[in-house]
Amino acid sequence: MDKQNKRIVLVTGATGGLGTAMCKELYKDGYHVVGNYHTKEKAEAWLKTMKAEGFDIQLFHGDVSDFDSAGAMIKKIEAEIGPIDTLVNNAGITRDGRLINMKKEDWYAVINTNLNSVFNCSRNVLDGMIERKFGRIINISSVNGQRGQFGQTNYSAAKAGMHGFTKSLAMEVAKYGITVNTISPGYIGTDMVMAVPEKVLAQIVAQVPMGRLGGTHEVAHLVSFLASEETSFITGANYSINGGQHVY
Ligand code: CAA
């Protein structure tokens, strides 16, 4: 809790499309929202826009793909703002390409940023959550971690790995009042998705029974729901939010 008794939420990758929507939704729902960023120029512009729109959100620098950098950032947030009650592991990148063309760097960058970051941040907030007997860890995975995607061996492997992490950690920390859940968005109208070649994206949207991309606010609403006190019996779960693209 912060000084005003508000729950503190850390959203990693806050300046991206989904991260921004999550920050806004959580702020509107009464949380003290803290964001993580990696690129300075983007962060400065983002803060200006947020302020102009009336959102009082602090940003902290950290490379979540690096254990020590993530740890130092979390220490700084907890010293300056207060203990983190909810961690949203949202930071993620793509380096799409068939495996036969994939460079070693593209494999490791995606695994480190999308999967190892989940360990790096969760490990660094967990002791405090256990001590306070409350916590919410929300991992942002993807439909492509559930079903695979041509050109995304690295991304799908990382996103599928999150599910195993969620299920196992949920069991370990349930007795401390900490819940751990995964959200698996489908194709949402973010810059990341809009970077997919137009023709390929049109084919993907054609497979979505809703016939459209998802909205960032639709995912953000689900994040805020899972952060709430009332979801205390939901843990180890995966929430699909993909317009019916993948149902099982
Ligand atoms: N299924 C089967 N074959 C396919 C295919 C598919 N979906 N897509 C391409 N191919 C085939 C092509 O027909 C072609 O075959 P031939 O060589 O026999 O002619 C071959 O693969 C090469 O195709 P490309 O020229 O497209 O190959 P490329 O290596 O230049 O590009 C790619 C491949 C990078 C995967 C490109 O198709 C692409 O960007 N696909 C989209 C990947 C995607 O959905 N990314 C999601 C990003 S957003 C995100 O990740 C958020 C989220 O969580 C949903």
Structure keywords:
9 helices, alpha/beta, binds acetoacetyl-coenzyme A, Rossmann fold, 7 strands, seven-stranded parallel β-sheet, globular
Characterise the protein shown here.
The protein has 248 residues and is an alpha/beta fold. It has one domain (3-240): Rossmann fold (3-Layer(aba) Sandwich), CATH 3.40.50. It is 48% helix and 15% strand. The protein has helices at residues 17-28, 40-52, 67-80, 104-132, 143-147, 153-173, 191-194, 198-206, 216-227; strands spanning 8-11, 32-37, 58-61, 86-89, 135-140, 178-185, 238-241. The protein has a 7-stranded parallel sheet, with helices on both faces. α4 links the parallel β4 and β5 (135-140). The site of acetoacetyl-coenzyme A has 20 residues, from α5, α7 and α8.
Ligands in the model, by name, code or SMILES, are: acetoacetyl-coenzyme A
Shape: globular
> How is the quaternary structure best described?
single chain
Largest sheet: 7 strands, parallel
Whole-number total of structural domains: 1
Beta-strand proportion = 5-15%
- Runs in which pLDDT lies below 50 for 5 or more consecutive residues are none
**Could you spell the SSE succession in H and E letters?**
EHEHEHEHEHHEHHHE
| CATH H-level superfamily | NAD(P)-binding Rossmann-like Domain
Q: Overall mean pLDDT score?
A: 97
Number of strands: 7
- Strand order, biggest sheet? 3-2-1-4-5-6-7
Given helix and strand content, the structural type is alpha/beta
The assigned CATH architecture is 3-Layer(aba) Sandwich
CATH class: Alpha Beta
